[in-house]
Design brief:
The chain is α/β, with parallel strands linked by helices. It contains 8 helices and 13 strands. The strands form 3 sheets. A 7-stranded mixed β-sheet has the order 3-2-4-5-1-10-11, sandwiched between helices. A 4-stranded mixed β-sheet has the order 8-9-12-13. Keywords: Glutamine amidotransferase, Hydrolase, Protease, Serine protease.
Length: 222
């Protein structure tokens, strides 16, 4: 059974929001293996730090160990060849798409031919920040210091939901960008402590999210 989480990701010190943690704990029961899909395939030290932690960052792996029985953790980056990477995906119960640069992540996945395997994957998929953005059929990048204009781009098509992670309703620029760009594209603003859980046709929102459609916004709080 495929279950997808779209979220901004855990706090680097405190981990996942309590409600998200409880949802994940229930869904991760019985899972034993997980593969991290990075956004910077050549930044080995950065990937290891974010996954394993250091003195300042706890590490995503440690947060997941607190709420699951996962024993095997693989990292999909340029340290592994395509054959090994494909085996990682096929043998995993859980895939975790890390945050970072969404365009580098998409490029890495497509150039190595992992996109088809990822679409066929039938386990649990966790998307954090850029990783969650890339799971959409149509993905959305809200303008920031790196890009002076918001844009839509082709995602992996694992879900039809387009999100704006790290959404802050009090950030006027981010709010107005979502409002303007929702004319023709539905955008879901997902704050740091919120998530969207998708299981087949069932979509549930963990904590408050914001739905932008045709230049209007609705608050979703289930």
């Amino acid at each position: 059974m495929k279950i997808i989480y779209l979220m901004s990701g855990p706090d680097k010190v405190n981990g996942f929001d309590e409600k998200i943690r409880n949802e994940l704990k229930n869904d991760l029961k019985g899972t034993k293996s997980l593969t991290f899909i990075v956004s910077s395939p050549d930044s080995f030290a950065k990937n290891d730090m974010y996954i394993n932690g250091n003195g300042q960052v706890i590490g995503v792996k440690n947060f997941l160990r607190e709420i699951s029985e996962i024993e095997t953790f693989n990292i999909l980056d340029n340290r592994v060849d395509i054959e090994t990477g494909s085996k990682f995906i096929q043998s995993s119960d859980v895939l975790y798409f890390l945050g970072g640069d969404p365009f580098e992540q998409i490029k890495y996945i497509n150039n190595n031919g992992y996109d088809k395997l990822l679409k066929e994957f039938n386990g649990i998929i966790l998307g954090a920040s850029a990783g969650a953005m890339n799971l959409g059929k149509i993905s959305y990048y809200s303008k920031d210091d790196d890009y002076d204009k918001s844009l839509f781009y082709d995602g992996l098509g694992i879900t039809n939901i387009t999100i704006d992670p790290h959404f802050d309703i009090n950030n006027g620029e981010q709010f107005n960008e979502a409002l303007t760009n929702s004319k023709g594209h539905e955008i879901i603003g997902v704050p740091n402590n919120s998530a969207i859980r998708i299981c087949n046709e069932d979509i549930r929102y963990v904590n408050t999210c914001y739905k932008f459609v045709d230049g209007k916004v609705d608050i979703i709080n289930e």
